[in-house]
Amino acid sequence: MLTIGELASYAGVTVRAVRHYHAKGLLPEPERDQSGYRRYDAGAVIELIKIRTLADAGIPLGRVQELLQADQEQFAAAVADIDERLREEIRVRQQHRTRIARLTSGDRLVLPPAVVEFLDHLRALGVDERLVQIERDGWIPLVMHSPRRVPQWVARKREQLTDTQLIDFYRTLGQAIDWAGDDPRLTDLADNLAVFLTQMADEHGGNYVDDIDIKAQLVDMMDTLVFDTTPAARHLVELLKKRGWTGWTKLERLSPAQSSAEPKPKT
What we know:
The protein is an all-alpha fold. Mean pLDDT is 83; it is low at 262-267. It is built from 14 helices and 2 strands; from the N terminus they run H-H-H-H-H-H-H-H-H-H-H-H-H-E-E-H. It has 3 domains: 1-67, Multidrug-efflux Transporter Regulator, Chain: A, Domain 2, CATH 1.10.1660; 70-104; 110-260, no CATH class. Helix 1 (4-11) crosses helix 3 (42-56) and helix 3 packs across helix 4. It has helices spanning 4-11, 15-23, 42-56, 61-69, 72-103, 113-124, 129-145, 150-160, 164-176, 184-204, 206-209, 216-229, 231-241, 256-260; strands spanning 245-246, 252-253. The relative contact order is 0.06. The chain is rod-shaped.
């Protein structure tokens, strides 16, 4: 006859585990002997090993008793059911692992691979990281608003970035983040950018410059986000408006009358 400590040692579990199995009703508690100790026989060792084996296999303790009492056919059916449940749990956990892994790359958490690759391309071209982040923040609501059009927009952006002049503009814009509103370099940038945009529109059509079709309210929200965090962007847009172009998120070509008109004061 064995003490509880010896039983636990033979089965490869702790005494605490044995008592837990007693409390769950999985392993019957023997009567105490005259000395007040519980004594276990070989049958208890076998039962405890079975319980431990099932528990180690991931079987919920609530089903261990069922399996211990099942015949061969019932046991096989129960194990198949538990296996399917475990497979589903593994699938769910794998999804969680994938999401956690995406957290380490930041952009991949909320953006599709095509956009992330575009942002990485900007970095590889030497564009200031702050401008890349502004670009990223603009893509997030676009992806949520029109996910099906994202591949088309990204392809257009990648095509445009084959122009070395546009790449230079991106790099200069990154530097312009730190410029004051009255910095003469902003005026030069607005002059050159307006000429470039006009040439692109004349050569490829207006939609080539920017064909993003989203609600004006969303455009205003995205523009405000940029302007509040990057005052130079607001100044640049004000300068561009006098040169025939307006907007940040959605660039639009103005008529001569529109571009020459004085902006209305905000109320």
